[in-house]
Amino acid sequence: MIKANPRLPTQVKLVEVGPRDGLQNESVAIDASTKVELVDRLTDAGLSYIETGSFVSPKWVPQMATSSDVFAQIRRNPKVTYAALTPNLQGLQAAIAAGADEVAIFGAASQSFSQKNINCSIDESLERFHDVVELAKQHDLKIRGYVSCVLGCPYEGDIAPEKVAEVARALFAMGCYEISLGDTIGVGTPHKVQEMLVAVNKYIPMDKLAVHFHDTYGQALANIYTALNMGISVIDSSVAGLGGCPYAKGASGNVATEDVVYLLDGLGIDHGINFDLLLKAGWFISDKLERPAISKVSNAMRAK
């Protein structure tokens, strides 16, 4: 019998980003009722944290224009956190009105990506978030922080681990309870993941960090395994592998939740998710999009 690796966590929390980060880049309009059913199916599957929508300008992200409707219609489970991305005060106020349980803000470790994505420098973006964080605190809302381009940028190439640590440290000091480190264009490899996490861990404990990998070059699961061995126990993933980045040419979807669950099962790590219901949720949204899931596990299981 294979002994469990003592360095691996015994339990992992999956942050499901499919309904927001996954669907926001779809070119075909998806109605609110479809998004509601997806969130409800993910709830039934046992996901404890679901990024349900984003309160950004519909001019820039039209797919998220129905986020208020989605929050109003989902079948809420008190054990589940239904979160929203809120890039500014107006977005936060809309999230509060919609009843979001938690909010997220985002910065980038790349100056060029920050300018292209949110039209301001890294320092300017962080400065803008102070008012957002203060209002969230007044409403007793927890704030999660994202850092984009932690392992590479479509405009600048490699990103220094120290720059990632600097931005993560600023968000953490501002009041974000957890920092999700995102390989936005999916170029990272295990060694780079190690270097980046070591740099960030100088300022932030591992139990306050999460990882968010895209699978552009097929490295996401290897990178997740590396992160698990370093003490990370929170992983962002997207059902059916939905998602990409509109500002990063060639960036494919987030790592698929189905693939991550299969990996965790193989490692004997508890995650609390009903695999059959998760698969069905992925097949549901894939059928709506009229294409196969971007998940090897999902497609293998459906072919049985």
From TrEMBL:
Gene3D superfamilies: Aldolase class I. InterPro entries: Aldolase_TIM, HMG_CoA_lyase_AS, HMGL, PYR_CT. SUPFAM superfamilies: Aldolase. It catalyses: (3S)-3-hydroxy-3-methylglutaryl-CoA = acetoacetate + acetyl-CoA. PROSITE patterns: HMG_COA_LYASE, PYR_CT. It holds the Pfam family HMGL-like. Its EC number is 4.1.3.4. One of its GO terms (biological process) is ketone body biosynthetic process. The keyword Lyase applies. Keywords: Lyase, Metal-binding. GO terms for molecular function: hydroxymethylglutaryl-CoA lyase activity; metal ion binding. The keyword Lyase applies. Residues 12-279 form the Pyruvate carboxyltransferase domain. Pathway: Metabolic intermediate metabolism; (S)-3-hydroxy-3-methylglutaryl-CoA degradation; acetoacetate from (S)-3-hydroxy-3-methylglutaryl-CoA: step 1/1. Belongs to the HMG-CoA lyase family. This is hydroxymethylglutaryl-CoA lyase. It comes from Thalassotalea litorea.
